[in-house]
Amino acid sequence: MNRRTFLMSMGALALSRLGWARQRQGYLWTDTSLTSGYPYELPDLPYSYDALEPAIDAQTMKVHHQGHHATYVNTLNKALEDLPTFQSLPLETLLANLEKVPTAQRTTIRNHGGGHWNHTFWWKILSPQKQEPSLSLLRRISSEFESWNRFRGQLLDAAAKHFGSGWAWLILTPTGRLRIITTPNQDNPLMPYAEIQGKPVLGIDVWEHAYYLKYQNRRAEYLSALWEHINWAQVEALLE
Ligand code: MN3
How many angstroms does the Cα of residue 26 sit away from the middle of ligand 1? Predict the structure, then answer.
């Protein structure tokens, strides 16, 4: 039994002891958890800080990773210090069951657990090299949104119009449909607060910290540049 399997079975055990339903977790995120277990650690980026230049500048990437993401990890660990039952859950399960978390720690775990999960997801959604979607991904997405261009327009429009801090997502719903939603702050589609819950397959960080040094208030310009750096192979892998 490896560490991941162990944590997953401990998580299932803790859930059944608490009488929690686990059926949602089955489709949302199986055993491919993104993050290590508690205590959580800041993951390395899969590329250098300047790899996305000029679309995303190195200083933004460094502050985003070493500043913002590190703070989410540290604050999440601190909030879980006195909650041993919750330490054994995969982060995806914890986020899907936030309503079970004691109220004293719930908002902190929502914000910082969400922040850790979202950013771990985010780094892998970015690609230093420009990628084209495969024919099968192009067909799958086009069939849901009428065309690839219409999908691009809807996703970037949702991201541009989201008021304040948050994320735009492409999600796989429990019935196998693809939908675009946005979430405020560090919420995500795994959480019970999402307008539609589902498995995230693509996410776009629209917090000002993701683009302000280079783009200031020009979020749409950031989104156009970002589009050229989406890791479509990763999106396709998450759809399977
Ligand atoms: Mn961010």
Answer: 27
| DSSP secondary structure string for all residues of the chain | --HHHHHHHHHHHHHHHTT---HHHHHH--S--SS--SSP-PPPPSS-TTTTTTTS-HHHHHIIIIIIIHHHHHHHHHHHTT-HHHHTS-HHHHHHTGGGS-HHHHHHIIIIIHHHHHHHHHHHHB-SS--PPPHHHHHHHHHHHSSHHHHHHHHHHHHHH--SSEEEEEEE-TTS-EEEEEEETT--TTSTTSSS--EEEEEEE-SGGGTHHHHTT-HHHHHHHHHTTB-HHHHHHHH-
pTM for the full predicted model = 0.89
18 CA to centre of ligand 1 in angstroms: 33
Query: Which residues have CB atoms below 5 A from the ion given as ligand 1?
Result: 205, 207, 210
167-181: pLDDT as tens digits: 999 999 988 999 999
Domains of the chain: 135-239 (3.55.40.20)
Residue 207 CA, ligand 1 centroid: distance in Å: 6
